[in-house]
Amino acid sequence: MTDLRTNYIISHGYAESGRLHLQQWLWKMQMGWDLHPSIKLPEDGELRIADHGCGNGCDWQPHICFTLANSEFPRAWIISMAGELEDAQLQRAVLTGFDISAVHFPAPENLPGNVNLKVLDAFVDPLPEELVGKFDVVHVRVFTAVVKNGNPAQLIANAVKMLKPGGYFQWDEMDSESLKAIPPQPSVSAAETQEMLDTSLVSARSAMSLDYSWIPRLGSLFEQHGLDVLADFRMDVKKEFRKPMTDSLLMVLGHIAKIAVRDGCMVGTDKNWEELWNNSGAEIENGVSVTTDMLVCVGRKRS
Ligand SMILES: C[S@@+](CC[C@H](N)C(=O)[O-])C[C@H]1O[C@@H](n2cnc3c(N)ncnc32)[C@H](O)[C@@H]1O
């Protein structure tokens, strides 16, 4: 069966990078922070921060700068963190974004001086020795479609190895199992959209070997890997961000569906995909939103 995971990242190219801006903006606006408040950064020495699956690491877009306040730039987590640390005038910080592919990386010349981006598989085994015990914080966000066969254990083990004693691991996730169509009011139908979502989920699960059962268990998985859990919660996206979340999710689902239809692995409905997609479109134009729960889990490595 076609590996939609690789196919998705590569073939979606610039459109995926654009969608990541939206996703990054959404997380920052929803939470209001990059690091959960339970994380207390050490006040002296060199601070080292890592972000797995950093994506485009993109810095700024002139047309957006003119229309949004400074704090609302859609910046990648690693860049946003670099800005926050600079604002807080914290001690010397080095931020490293890791991703399995460099296709979305901006030119190093366009990155802040304390940010570097490198190619690394978050599931690599063994972890390169130079990364062991070096980081104060390791961060992961939106790996729903990256974790294979429902098993994030290797990634968590790597993150724990990368941390210094007392370091923090923060994982922000979207629970695909909670993917749902929400009508703006009971009189508006969301049935076609829900069927489209269910079909996409079944197809993505089977074509990409995905199993989302690990997502609600992140807290206990952290504990099994020797982390003290400081935060473990889920929330609905705020109403005002339902629309950007809908747009971001539809971009992913539409693209995955196109590949699945092309490769003959679209399953879960007797309807023609085009028909289902168009009917959902009509409902979405009537105000139906597509959302998933947003989760945050923070663990601390014992000293
Ligand atoms: C959905 S994007 C999330 C990007 C970013 N974390 C964010 O919050 O916007 C998933 C990212 O993980 C990367 N990725 C996929 N498999 C990976 C792996 N095994 N190790 C590291 N990164 C991976 C992809 O290239 C992509 O940039």
Automatic annotation (TrEMBL):
Name the source's superkingdom. Eukaryota
Q: Which CDD domains match?
A: AdoMet_MTases
Task: Identify this protein by name.
Answer: Methyltransferase domain-containing protein
Question: What lineage does UniProt assign to this protein's organism?
Answer: Eukaryota, Fungi, Dikarya, Ascomycota, Pezizomycotina
